[in-house]
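User: What would this chain look like folded?
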Amino acid sequence: MRQSIRRPLLAITTLLTLAAPAAASAAPANLAVQQVSRMDTPWWHRRFAEKQAAIAAGRYDLVWLGDSITQNWERTGPEPWRDFAPVWQRFYGDRHAINLGFKGDSTCHVLWRLAHGELDFRTPPRLFVIMIGANNFGHVHTDAARTYPGITRIVDAIHTRFPTTQVLLLAVLPSIRSAWVSANTRQLNTMLEADIRQGRPWLHVQDVGAAVETHGAPDPSRFLDPHLTPPDPPLHPTAAAQEEIARMIEPTVAAILGDHRHK
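Assistant: Here's the prediction, encoded as structure tokens.
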């Protein structure tokens, strides 16, 4: 009786022992390349629905796609450091542009949005401007090596849907959050500059970090976060710094859209 019970127990123990190393060595899933919804967040849900309605109703040549830095284009002061909307109007108001920026989004949330309606334009846009990745180094906490394939999936999803559309990918802006964030920002931008354009002639990459830097280092005065009450770590450009970003990319934007340079 004892032997008949002991043999199966030994067999099970052996199987668990053999399986344990494989389970322990299995790499965790890379969240940066998954599709993750935020529809359970009320304001995000509302904004997504509003943007879906706008996509269905309009014609767009230029699409800004990203996180809160992109969403900030819709802010209207009253303080000068967060009065972004006039700059957007000057650079993009006559260009059939739409703002698809969502505060707090990382690559996984953008991938969900693209798969659930944010590529359902009636006609192919001529240009996507993408700024994403800063939040991967925040609450999602995926490092540069894991964030990079999330970004490649985003640009490739756009190209698969719209083969004639050009994509302008902006490097992740420097910030003043932590040494880990700064190191991964530099590493990711180096990877983007060195590799992501290979085999993607429709993709343009531009580093606009100088808009928030002085002498090659992030300048707190060029971020709006220190103006907040209470202040936050410098991450989001002021309206003036974001205007500088618009100026920096304007030659590429104007060339792709085939119109005059805006100032």
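DSSP finds eight helices and seven strands in the chain. If you want, I can go into more detail on any region.
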